[in-house]
Request: fold
Amino acid sequence: MNSDDPKLTAYALGELSGEEAIEFERMLADDEGLREALKEIQETAGMVRVALGDESASILTTKEEDQMIATAIEGDEEPEAKMVRVPFYRNPAYMSLAAALVMIFGLLGLITSMSIPAYNKDKPTVHVVDTKKPRVVRHLMEPTPPPALSANELNSSRDQQFAYSTQQKVAGLDKNKSRKESGAVIEKGIRTRASLSEIESQLARGNEDSMSLTMSSEPKILPPETPISYEPITPVRDGEFNTEAYDSIEDNSFLLVEHSPLSTFSIDVDSAAYANVRRFINARQRPPKDAVRIEELVNYFPYEYALAERNEHPLKINVEAASAPWQEEHRLVRVALKGKEIDWEERPASNVVFLLDVSGSMQSQNKLPLVKQSVELLVRKFGQRDRVAIVTYAGQSRVALPSTTADNTETILHAIGNLTSGGSTLASAGIEDAYKIAEKHFVDGGNNRVILCTDGDFNVGVTNRGSLVDLIEKEANNGVYLTILGFGIGNYKDATLEELSNKGNGNYGYIDTLREARKVFVEQVAGTMVTIAKDVKIQVEFNPAKVQAYRLIGYENRRLAAQDFNDDKKDAGEIGAGHTVTAFYEVVPAGMDWEAPGVDPLKYQKPVPKLEATSSDELLTVKLRYKLPEADESTFLEEPFVDTGNAFAKASEDFRFAAGVAAFGMILRDSPYKGNSGFALVREIAEGAQGNNRGGYRSEFLHLIDQAEMVLAIKLPL
Amino acid sequence: MNAERKKQPENPGMRDEVSDDRQQWIRSLVERHGSPLTRYARTFTGDMESARDAVQETFLRLCREDAAKIADHCKPWLYKVCRSRALDYLRKEGRMIPVDNSLLTLNEAPGPSPSADLEKSEKVESVMQVIETLPPNQKEVVRLKFQNDLSYKEIAEVTGLSVTNVGFLLHVALKFIRKQIRGEAELMPESRGET
Reply:
């Protein structure tokens, strides 16, 4: 065979049938030139595949897909809709006619608009933009629209169209049957176009001329009370079509010690917010304020806090204080915990059920393919003692891999390789199946865990959040924990995911790159997989003789009431092996001239002389309660702390770095308490604290500071 | 997104005629093939808008087909219909629009890591550039094969070429790409054929 035979390519691409392939391989065996040529073809084919695969991300948004589906299904019901296949209005003749009509209406509109105060700045104008083309069509087919109907026609939603037909009757418009039908066809046509116009409208924003022409016809056909704006070309803020959901966070304010000497909160080792914030910044977008959870930013980085001596407690309290870099006269107090380390080889056996979202929304490159790689990473860390199962959910849930011991690498990897995305999301059924498998293979004293990988789009059917939470809580009490890993962009549901993982005694991470997956599943695998203490609560008592006021930085959604501290029924955060938890208090020293913002002096109490309160030198005492993973009752430990008045520059490197990250978070949140924090300050702090740069996270942070400064320098539109 | 997805099935009176199964089927096809088809159509139309129209029309047609008849060759069927819709559009417009390269990168999601090794992306870039210089018929089969994962037979069904022709075009295209990447010869691509 000639080395230029197309058969070579066919073979390389797996196109030869069994017999042909065998014959070809026989020839290949005794022809080196052929083998060489084949190798080259295979290499080239690989390159082309990679290059073209690089472009294979979704170019339709989920919204566009949905609209396509809706339109297609409607077309299915009404064969007349065939008409719309031909984009007749694109015909130049129609176009010019349409343009002429639009112009006439436009002029009328301009005149009429003078007397109509139909201006409402508060309402967005998406509908107006959407219906640009449909209206052209409408004018064309029905040049004398009865004004009462037009508002409905402007809106392409179906409900409105029903309203339209109803109103036709109400208005007593005498239309015979065939007229109505042709009306329906027109409507159909309008709807089809409208459903495709989402991106068009974006493109059209640049095209002010044609827009203003169409737009100016507005007042003529609109009843004055219709809330519509004259500004169709509203600049779009970043992420306007972004459906990501975050719970809102208000920065903790300063509290006076005389009013509230106790500060209580649940620990949180999650670090999802950092990866998510990084994703925004790298995409040149300012992260939404509520996506910036400062405690998660700080906790993203590894710190080398002292370990518990002896094995009395599985965790240790570390307290340190220095001046606050953003407010020199304030003290910054760090309360840190370190969970004991566990040698991976000595870990308890694992019984892990992956619950993977394979719905259509997971299709893009940074979702399902990354999920698969992540699962593979973890499977490779496991051994013969561990069990892995995979449940997938989309339209329905499916057991993709029954519980299998992790040494069957090939079977598991094969199951992973076969996962494909498609269909809509129905999380609740999948989660029940996953828990069933986890219970069936429950390992006493082991790591029993469901790992949910999703973009959080639980979007079809009865996803009753309440009963889902109940289920997760119940299973957590039975010893099956829930870890949630968030993937993807655009419709990432942060709030849902964090809440669910908290209820499930689990952790919550955001995975945007393979590197992040490696951090969660390889570098910190023990922390992710082995919980060493649960329901960990911290209560800090401040000494009024030393402290006038204090503010907890971050942990806004983890605050507890003082009495919850001793209530063992109150759920709180878990800590994994080797995990660290860092919390900062900004403290206003007693005796300093400082005015509590927004608080009037007490009317019925006289200020008690501070020195009478106690003669202690202690600034504060940190109290901690935790439960061992199997325990129902909590253990108590405490650590008093005396502030020696360290300057910030004298503080430990970990302290300084973490403080820099907290300041960074305050800048991104535009916190009212950020003081003198600025990117320059953060950069200076971070550069001076690069010592523990294991994993390169600290040096990456330097890069992120630069990026963030650039992103924030771009003035927000509007 | 949540709200929208939920809304659709709730529209009264509209869904009864379409069984849930069929809806589910159409949904899964749009989700799986919608984006790749749009990208494919865009290589003909040159703009997103009409590419999306072509795909929309393809799915409208799909809905009027007997599912049983095309179920076993859905994918090539979709590409074939989409292709002819896109070409219809070109014919109607009476012009051929070259694909604007800048459009090709529009809307693309970022790769796994923004700072992924440069070397790889440079190579990808140069391979893409070479692919762009291929004659249209080669370019098309290369895309159908390597991007859309169609077999020779399926490509033949979509394009109306014979299987042998498909094999030949792919062979020649790969050979050309290899030579260009190596920079061995300044081989010009064969005379540009019609699509």
Remarks:
- Chain B has ten helices and no strands.
- The radius of gyration of chain B is 19 Å.
- Chain B touches chain A through 75 residues (CB under 8 Å).
